[in-house]
């Protein structure tokens, strides 16, 4: 009989084994298919994610699923083992499976582990820590996240994302979620667990939910498993079908270094790819958007440093070259939880054994129970109970404990792991070598901070007290500690162990290790804990500082260690329909290409090779016209899950559609668009379905639409809206300049040019915040209007809301209640008037160069929480950067007639010095933040304080306005109407009203916004070209006076509004908008252009109140033109190809005419003579604007006969270029400064000396825009062209008033020349200098006495005497010498074979060399040597022109 039983048992075991093997085999196949069936399909990816850990797997998967971007995920390890990794009970066995771990030997510490090294581990496997850890799932305290002090990282900010990933099998709090992909479970049916929990509860320790607000207490440990299966991020995301459609995975691939170059115009290094080793072979991959590091807190800083990003001194010492970005914080701030485990034993036996790989019989039974029935010992991991406790160093905050105990019991053993979870000690990660296979130096510094030691000792004592004084197991006998070897203190003593301090110290010293919870080595900025920008690696959006195209998404970014198990804190989620997985299809379907959103059809066709060249090369503006005439359709397939469909409101939010389109989802029309400037919102809840969905955006050709609208309007209203060019752009709300302008080509493109995605909520969201700052005496008031959008049905729904408002983390309003009732459209607003407390000192925002030149920005954060009638809860948050300042436009009467026109900021008069901004490219999607920063920083470096966003472009990006705030550039904001009559029919007015309201609310909070202007030049155009057309006059009045003006003044009463630029300001209103003259020097602002007068003569220019446009054209440099032309096009006289770049032949002739007025023209020839012409055009332009601007700067007096004068603003046209052509710009489209821009640096300086001739007299004006009286030493020097030393010098002490312009010297020129013994004006010139050494102020200027072509110039023989490093590695001082006076010296660099050159900015150019020597500062965008600069430098002056 026994043989039968044995045989039966054996047969049963064989059957169970077969079943288990089958299940494990299937799971192993899934793991290995995930790891090995994927491959590198593309040469270029949108994103490359390094590290397939807890964060990296989700980031990679969601990027591919929601943006449909191409994503490559690299992992150094391999797949999971179904037997070892999947079963929770095998967690201890996993730790011995070395091939799944990185292994680091830390530096020895004298005070712990007997000065021995500690081996630390981190997951090297798909899923990272989530595949090999103990699965403990504790988010961390609310206070931890709130105390970070980082925008977007508070607990309320992160909670929705925690809930999106979690699927709690037994939720017990509102904070628990049941909808996410990762299972979270607690075991509540094991008697001994309940017994210990209840016993400690009876002793006063509360039972809590460790993922709720109050975490001090005891709880069954929540863990990331479900149905007896580990819930790693790989299993929960990547191994689920269709979760990650465009994700490629490479396993056993070791990242070696980031590939970096410095091609951006602002000189910021950009990551363009990654080098890695697989199968002992080096490979590279290129990235289009970003590389995302998710390699963990040891490997991420290691890879940064290997790539030349980190502490420069350390990298130099190790031998890493080049160093791309010196970030001292890389590798610093390392933290982990120090821990120690105490062992106890009793004479009890629990019905639980530790899982092991010993007896195959036992394990087959256990494996069967676990894998088939989902029960048994293998279904729970160690650390069944968790206690969160406050040591005697804690603040006794029940929401922020500093000690964690984790209890594990089996058989007659009990283990208590003790961890300090709010530690203050920090260590570091450093490179040991430049070999990526060599582990880094890990200096943990465990327990270095005395508070950590004291808290640890207190926690050890308390653990013994719990065991010794509490009957933990109820019916079981007393538990006794297992003596720790080497710690024989109090062994034979009557002193209980919880009072034996020597024993506690011995245990701490002998047995302390870490929990492998590493953070902090690539930390974010934080306002507290002394972690500011200078001590951080990434910003709050996880972008690596000083480097473009690189983010870090792992635990290394946390400034302090979370007081829990960090794994949950690494997880995130987002929703978007952006990406490069769209298709663009022509109307006849003959072209079908991969498309990118945001983007444009021209960019898509160029990227896919349909357009063979850049759109700006040669005649491509003509060759590629067919693109704009076709009707293109954009299509994308995307996935929707139940989390989205279950929301009450599901909107498609399109922030920018260009322009006329019909939008379909799943072949159902959801809406139409016809305004590029409007944010469109469509409710799509009823048309979406679970799983795959399709969106289709069908565009209509803009030129075709304009023609149709023009004809329809004429037929319906019986009159015509005339056009000022061949495209009547007035009939479409689209960038006017996309149809071509006098500075650029026509490319009226199509596409989704801004973000598009699904916006989902149950109750409401914050849509906009309007801000107004006012001051009474020294007390500031913050006035806010918070615009909300609520779920609309039913219309009588009542929501209880609570508002929290903070300023730089200082609480202004806390939990203020508002009762909201939805209306028919779900839109409403809530107003707040907040007195800033005296305890919060306010620093003012000023324009660049004004007063103390501060541009302090404050972070305003508004949170609103919603609770409906059924106690459902939801919240929304919005953060804005604001500044405290007052601004007004002062228009006071002057005699005999006229009004002033100037800005007053914080009660100080401001002279507006600046320029006009045009769109940075015809294709807005190709404009990078780095390029915009370069342009605006260049404006600041040229001492500008204002910039006009011109009405022929677009309302600019949030980035541009935020940058203007940061740099102190006031913005004159036009509405997007320019140089044409516009219709004013009801349909047109309706979309304009929405456009104006949305745009004002979007950008109004920026302190840089100084003034709103209704349009560009339409008032002047109407009066000049169409003075008697009543329809056009009525349309103008209806559109700008009756619609735009009242909307702007209602939405933003804090700023001035003018109806047009130019306009007569208040006089226009007084005349009821029926002015018979604009550009009136007595009123408002004017635009002034002259192409025939001698523009180096100041008397040509108008004595106006404010000149908001003026300028003259020049050609860009040879390097810039070489990007669009072949060398055969470079001739003088100009070739046909070059000539046609001039959009108006009148301007072309004016450039040559103006050059010939002052210089001898180049002789006929090829590239060298052509280059001479380019040089002379830039000098001529620079001198014309220098003369004009200097006149405006000094023209502060009122003409008592006419009322003219008192000029308080000079804004030249234009700052930037869109293509390679002759224009008014001071910066070429490659970002290179023209001579004009370096001249602007001087003529816009706060201190300016201006010599000029008036009635045969030398007059010298001193302009002092500082707000104090200052005395200066004036030097007047007369030079002969043939010498390099002055022939006459005169010195004089002069005085200047605060914020003034005054004449400080007058002398007949004939007398000066006689005294200096200069017999012929053609022989001489003047140099003027002023200085005040006490204030460290000085400037200079020159004055020609004859045109250069008539002057007796001598070839100066300029030499480069020295090139040396300046203040940093990219700043150089170039020293020049000359034998005689060298006029208009231009510095440039030779062209390389690819028509590029050394890039950067000369801080002066087109300068004079007096006294035989001159030093110029060059700021390079590249890492170059002094030798390279000297070798490549070109020096040119007037006498070099042949």
Outline the secondary-structure elements.
Elements: H1 2-36, E1 44-50, H2 54-66, E2 71-74, H3 91-94, E3 101-105, E4 119-123, H4 129-132, H5 142-147, H6 155-165, E5 166-168, E6 182-184, H7 191-202, E7 217-220, E8 225-226, E9 229-230, H8 233-238, E10 247-250, E11 253-261, E12 270-278, E13 281-293, H9 296-306, E14 309-310, H10 312-318, E15 325-326, E16 332-334, E17 338-345, H11 360-373, E18 385-389, E19 403-410, E20 413-420, E21 427-430, E22 441-443, H12 450-469, E23 480-481, H13 501-511, E24 513-514, E25 550-552, E26 579-585, E27 592-597, H14 601-607, H15 620-623, H16 625-629, E28 633-640, H17 642-645, E29 649-654, E30 657-658, E31 661-665, E32 668-673, E33 680-683, E34 691-699, H18 702-717, E35 739-741, E36 744-746, E37 751-752, E38 756-761, E39 764-776, E40 779-790, E41 798-807, E42 810-821, E43 827-835, E44 858-867, E45 873-882, E46 887-890, E47 902-905, E48 908-910, E49 912-917, H19 929-941, E50 946-949, H20 958-967, E51 970-974, H21 986-1003, E52 1009-1013, H22 1018-1025, H23 1030-1051, E53 1057-1058, H24 1066-1070, E54 1086-1088, E55 1107-1110, H25 1118-1121, ...
Parallel strand pairs: 1-2, 1-13, 2-10, 5-6, 13-25, 14-15, 49-50, 49-56, 50-51, 51-52, 52-53, 54-55
Antiparallel strand pairs: 3-4, 7-18, 8-9, 11-12, 12-13, 16-21, 17-20, 17-23, 17-24, 18-19, 19-20, 21-22, 26-27, 26-28, 28-34, 29-33, 29-38, 30-37, 31-32, 31-34, 35-36, 39-40, 40-43, 41-42, 41-44, 44-45, 46-47, 47-48, 57-58, 58-61, 59-60, 59-62, 62-63, 64-65, 65-69, 66-68, 66-70, 67-69
Helix pairs in contact: 1-11, 12-13, 19-20, 21-23, 28-29
């Amino acid at each position: 009989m026994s043989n039968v039983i044995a045989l039966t048992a054996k047969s049963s075991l064989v059957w169970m084994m077969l079943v288990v093997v089958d299940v494990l085999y299937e799971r192993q196949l899934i793991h290995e298919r995930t790891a090995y069936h994927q491959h590198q399909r593309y040469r270029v990816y949108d994103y490359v994610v390094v590290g397939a850990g807890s964060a990296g797997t989700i980031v990679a998967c969601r990027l591919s699923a929601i943006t449909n971007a191409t994503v490559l995920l690299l992992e150094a390890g391999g797949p999971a083992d179904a037997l070892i990794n999947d079963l929770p009970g095998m967690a201890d066995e996993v730790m011995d499976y070395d091939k799944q771990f990185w292994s680091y030997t830390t530096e020895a510490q004298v005070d712990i582990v007997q000065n021995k090294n500690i081996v630390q581990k981190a997951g090297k496997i798909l899923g990272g820590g989530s595949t090999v850890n103990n699965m403990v799932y504790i988010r961390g305290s609310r206070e931890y996240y709130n105390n970070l002090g980082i925008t977007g990282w508070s607990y309320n900010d992160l909670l929705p994302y925690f809930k999106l990933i979690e699927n709690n099998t037994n939720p017990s709090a509102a904070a628990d979620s049941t909808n996410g992909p990762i299972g979270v479970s607690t075991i509540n049916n094991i008697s001994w667990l309940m017994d210990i929990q209840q016993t400690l509860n009876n002793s006063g320790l509360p039972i809590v939910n460790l993922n709720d607000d109050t975490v001090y207490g005891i709880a069954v440990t929540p863990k990331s498993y479900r149905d007896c299966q580990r819930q790693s991020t790989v299993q929960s995301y990547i191994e689920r079908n269709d979760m990650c459609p465009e994700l490629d995975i490479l396993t056993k691939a070791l990242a070696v270094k980031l590939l970096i170059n410095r091609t951006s115009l602002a000189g910021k290094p950009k990551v363009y790819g990654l080098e890695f080793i697989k199968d002992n072979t080096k490979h590279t991959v290129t990235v289009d958007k970003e590389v995302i590091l998710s390699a963990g807190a040891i490997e991420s800083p290691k890879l940064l440093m290997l790539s030349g990003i980190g502490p420069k001194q350390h990298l130099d010492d190790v031998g890493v070259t080049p160093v791309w970005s010196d970030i001292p914080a890389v590798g610093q701030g390392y933290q982990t939880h120090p821990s120690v485990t105490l062992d106890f034993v009793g004479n009890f036996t629990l019905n639980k054994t530790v899982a092991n790989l010993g007896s195959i019989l036992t394990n087959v039974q256990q494996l069967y129970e676990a894998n088939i029935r989902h029960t048994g010992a293998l279904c729970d991991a160690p650390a069944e109970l968790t206690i969160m406790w406050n040591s005697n160093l804690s603040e006794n905050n029940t929401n922020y404990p500093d000690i964690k105990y984790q209890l594990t019991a089996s058989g007659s053993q009990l283990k208590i792991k003790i961890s300090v979870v709010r530690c203050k000690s920090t260590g570091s990660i450093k490179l040991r070598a430049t070999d990526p296979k060599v582990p880094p130096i890990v200096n943990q510094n465990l327990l270095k901070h005395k508070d950590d030691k004291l808290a640890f000792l207190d926690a050890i004592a308390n653990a013994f007290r719990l065991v010794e004084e509490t009957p933990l197991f109820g019916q079981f006998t007393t538990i006794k500690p297992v003596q720790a070897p080497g710690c024989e203190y109090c062994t034979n003593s009557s002193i209980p162990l919880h009072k034996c301090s020597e024993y506690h110290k011995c245990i701490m010293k002998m047995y302390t290790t870490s929990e492998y919870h590493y953070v902090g080595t690539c930390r974010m900025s934080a306002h507290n804990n002394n972690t500011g920008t200078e001590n951080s690696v990434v910003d709050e959006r996880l972008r690596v500082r000083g480097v473009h195209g690189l983010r870090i998404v792992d635990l290394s970014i946390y400034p302090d260690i979370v007081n829990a198990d960090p794994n949950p804190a690494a997880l995130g989620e987002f929703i978007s329909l952006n990406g490069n997985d769209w298709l663009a299809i022509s109307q006849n379907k003959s072209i079908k290409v991969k498309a990118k959103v945001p983007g444009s059809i021209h960019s898509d066709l160029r990227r896919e090779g349909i357009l063979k060249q850049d759109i700006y090369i040669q005649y491509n503006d003509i060759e590629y016209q067919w693109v704009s005439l076709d009707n293109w359709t954009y299509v994308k397939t995307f996935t929707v899950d139940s989390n989205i469909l279950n929301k009450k409101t599901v909107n498609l939010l399109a922030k920018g559609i260009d322009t006329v389109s019909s939008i379909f989802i799943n072949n159902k029309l959801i809406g139409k668009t016809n305004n590029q400037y409007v944010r469109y919102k469509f409710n799509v809840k009823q048309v979406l379905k679970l799983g795959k969905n399709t969106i289709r955006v069908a565009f209509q050709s803009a030129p075709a639409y304009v023609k149709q609208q023009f004809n329809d309007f004429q037929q319906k209203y019986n009159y015509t809206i005339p056009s000022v060019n061949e495209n009547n752009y007035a009939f479409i709300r689209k960038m006017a300049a996309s149809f071509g302008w006098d500075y650029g080509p026509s490319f009226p493109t199509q596409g989704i040019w801004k973000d598009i995605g699904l916006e989902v909520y149950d109750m409401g969201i914050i849509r906009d915040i309007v801000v107004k700052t006012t001051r009474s005496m020294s007390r500031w008031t913050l006035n806010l209007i918070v615009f909300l959008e609520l779920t609309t049905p039913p219309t009588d729904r009542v929501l209880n809301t609570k508002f929290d408002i903070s300023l730089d983390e200082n609480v202004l309003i806390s939990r203020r209640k508002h009762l909201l009732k939805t209306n028919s459209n779900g839109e409403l607003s809530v107003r707040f008037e907040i007195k800033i407390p005296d305890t919060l000192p306010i620093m003012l925002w000023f324009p660049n160069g004004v007063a103390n030149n501060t541009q302090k920005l404050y972070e305003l954060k508004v949170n609103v929480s919603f609770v409906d009638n059924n106690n459902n809860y939801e919240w929304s948050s919005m953060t804005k950067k604001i500044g405290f300042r007052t601004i007004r436009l002062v228009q006071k009467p002057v005699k005999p007639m006229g009004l002033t026109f100037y800005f007053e900021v914080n009660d100080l008069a401001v002279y507006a010095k600046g320029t006009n901004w045009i769109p940075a490219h015809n294709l807005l999607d190709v404009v990078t933040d780095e390029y915009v920063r370069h342009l605006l920083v260049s404006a600041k470096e040229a001492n500008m304080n204002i910039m006009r966003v011109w009405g022929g472009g677009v309302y600019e990006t949030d980035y541009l306005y935020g940058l203007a705030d940061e740099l102190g550039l006031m913005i004159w904001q036009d509405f997007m109407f320019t140089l044409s009559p516009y219709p004013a029919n009801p349909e047109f007015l309706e979309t304009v009203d929405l456009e104006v309201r949305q745009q004002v609310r979007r950008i109004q909070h920026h302190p840089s916004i100084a003034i709103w202007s209704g349009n560009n030049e339409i008032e002047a155009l109407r009066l000049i070209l169409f003075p008697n057309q009543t329809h056009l006059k009525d349309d103008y009045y209806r559109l700008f006076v009756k619609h735009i003006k009242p909307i702007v003044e209602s939405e933003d009463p804090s700023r001035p509004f003018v109806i047009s630029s130019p306009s007569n300001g208040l006089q226009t209103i007084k005349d009821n908008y029926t002015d018979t003259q604009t550009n009136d020097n007595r009123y408002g602002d004017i635009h002034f252009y002259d192409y025939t007068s001698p523009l180096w003569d100041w008397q040509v220019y108008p004595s106006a109140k404010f000149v908001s446009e003026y300028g003259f054209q020049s050609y860009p440099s040879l390097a810039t033109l070489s990007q669009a032309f072949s060398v055969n096009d470079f001739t003088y006289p100009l070739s046909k190809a070059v000539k046609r770049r001039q959009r108006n032949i009148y301007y072309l002739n004016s450039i040559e005419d103006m050059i010939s007025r002052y210089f001898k023209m180049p002789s006929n020839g090829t590239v060298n003579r052509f280059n001479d012409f380019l040089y002379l055009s830039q000098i001529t332009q620079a001198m014309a604007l220098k003369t004009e601007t200097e006149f405006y700067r000094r023209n502060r007096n009122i003409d008592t006969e006419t009322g003219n004068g008192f000029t308080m603003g000079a804004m030249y046209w234009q700052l930037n270029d869109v293509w390679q052509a002759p224009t008014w710009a001071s910066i070429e489209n490659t970002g290179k400064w023209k001579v004009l821009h370096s001249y602007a640096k001087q003529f816009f300086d706060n201190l300016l000396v201006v010599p000029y001739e008036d009635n045969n007299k030398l007059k010298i004006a001193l302009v002092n825009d500082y707000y104090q009286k200052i005395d200066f030493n004036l030097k007047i020097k007369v030079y002969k062209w043939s010498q390099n030393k002055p022939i006459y010098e005169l010195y004089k002490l002069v005085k200047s008033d605060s914020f003034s312009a005054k004449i400080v010297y007058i002398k007949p020129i004939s007398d000066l020349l006689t005294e200096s013994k200069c017999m012929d004006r053609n022989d001489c010139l003047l140099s003027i200098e002023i200085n005040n050494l006490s204030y460290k102020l000085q400037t200079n200027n020159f004055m020609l006495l004859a045109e250069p072509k008539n002057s007796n110039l001598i070839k100066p023989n300029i030499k480069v005497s020295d090139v040396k490093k300046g203040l940093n590695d990219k700043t150089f001082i170039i020293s020049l010498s000359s034998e005689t006076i060298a006029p208009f010296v231009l510095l440039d660099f030779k062209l390389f074979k690819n028509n590029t050159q050394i890039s950067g900015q000369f801080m002066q150019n087109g300068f004079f060399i007096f006294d035989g020597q001159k030093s110029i500062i060059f700021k390079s965008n590249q890492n170059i040597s002094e030798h390279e600069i000297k070798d490549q430098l070109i020096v040119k002056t007037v006498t070099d022109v042949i």
